[in-house]
Write a structure and sequence with these properties.
The chain is mainly alpha-helical and 203 residues long. It is built from 12 helices and 3 strands; from the N terminus they run αααααααααβααββα. The protein has 3 domains: 76 residues, no CATH class; 70 residues, Arc Repressor Mutant, subunit A; 38 residues. The relative contact order is 0.08. InterPro entries: COPS7/eIF3m (IPR045237).
C-alpha cells in the first residue's frame, strides 16, 4: 500500500465507511470494510454501521455472524463483554480493538463531574494506576474526554466527553425525559413571568 493510499484510508470518516459498506454487493467485501473501520485508530463509534440492513443481515450468515456481534459490543458494551465473546471471535481481533474497548468503557462511566479512578481500573480490566493514567491521557489527546486527574482524591475531574452510541430502544426514553424537562422549564418560566407581573404568590 502506497503512503498516499494509506493516508487516505486514515482520513476516512465513519460516514464514508457506512456509504461504502451499504454499497457493497457481497458479504466478504462488506466485512473487510467494517473491520477496516473498526481498526481505524481515529474511529470509535459504530452505530451507523451496525444499523445498516445488510450488516444486520450478516447475523444469518454463519461465516460472518460474529461481525454484528462484535459491533454490538463496541457500540454498547464494555471490556468484560468483549473478552466474553467466543474464542473463535477473539482470535480474529487485533490487540488495538481491546485498547479501543477500554476507552469506550471509560466513556460509559462519564456522568456528572467526576469519575472514580477505582471504577475506571475495574471497568478496563484491573489495570494499575500508571496504566489508567496513560489511558486517560491518550483519551484526552484523542478528543474523547476532557478533564484532569486528581491523584490525591483518586478521581478524574470531568469537563466534557464524547457520548457513546445509544440503543434505538433507549431513544424514546431519552425523548420522554427531555420533554418532561422542557415542560418543567416552561412552567418555571411562566411562574417567573407571573411574579414579575405582580401576579405571583410572593406579591
Amino acid at each position: 500500500m502506497t503512503q498516499g493510499i494509506s493516508e487516505a484510508l486514515a482520513r476516512r470518516s465513519i460516514e464514508e465507511y457506512a456509504h461504502l459498506v451499504a454499497a457493497s454487493t457481497n458479504d466478504s467485501d462488506r466485512v473487510c470494510l467494517i473491520m477496516e473501520a473498526v481498526e481505524a485508530p481515529h474511529i470509535f463509534f459504530y452505530g451507523v454501521l451496525l444499523h445498516i440492513p445488510s450488516v444486520m443481515a450478516l447475523a444469518t450468515n454463519p461465516s460472518f455472524a460474529w461481525v454484528p456481534q462484535l459491533l454490538e459490543v463496541l457500540c454498547y458494551g464494555n471490556t468484560a463483554e468483549l473478552c466474553a465473546l467466543p474464542a473463535d471471535v477473539q482470535k480474529r481481533l487485533p490487540s488495538s480493538i481491546y485498547e479501543k474497548m477500554r476507552k469506550l468503557s471509560v466513556l460509559s462511566l462519564c456522568r456528572g463531574d467526576v469519575i472514580s479512578l477505582k471504577n475506571i481500573r475495574e471497568i478496563v480490566g484491573g489495570s494499575g494506576d500508571v496504566e489508567v493514567e496513560v489511558l486517560l491521557l491518550e483519551m484526552m489527546s484523542e478528543g474523547l474526554i476532557e478533564g484532569c486527574i486528581d491523584q490525591r482524591q483518586d478521581l478524574f475531574l470531568l469537563k466534557d466527553w464524547a457520548p457513546r452510541d445509544v440503543r434505538p430502544s433507549e431513544i424514546g426514553k431519552m425523548r420522554e425525559k427531555l420533554e418532561a424537562w422542557c415542560a418543567n422549564c416552561d412552567a418555571q418560566i411562566t411562574a417567573i413571568q407571573r411574579i414579575l407581573k405582580g401576579e405571583g404568590e410572593w406579591q
